[in-house]
Amino acid sequence: MTFWTLFSRAIRLRCPFCGVGKPFTGLLRMHRHCGHCELEFEREEGYFLGSIYFNYGLTALLVTAVYLPLRWFELVSRLPLMIVTFSFALLFPIWFFRYARCLWMAMDHFFDPRTPVK
Description:
Elements: H1 3-11, H2 51-72, H3 78-111
Helix pairs in contact: 1-3, 2-3
């Protein structure tokens, strides 16, 4: 399976194997396996710990990319900029949580593909 197929499935929040099933039942709760192909989403205990790196990395990158230039060139005063970036750093990871997990599953499936156990 190609990288772009898996990436597309991840950003659409779909199963990395079939592309049809939805991994999430709500904002933060996941199904144990795909409702379409029966692929088990969590391979082992602590499997999604790696998705935290995606979430933290993108949050830190975005905050740094916005904060430093705006502060360096003094385009925005310090207090409003800190409030906005702090709020973003708190809220963005909650929103991006599902995408980080799906990206992690897609990356894992790209490097170590597996098939559903039926």
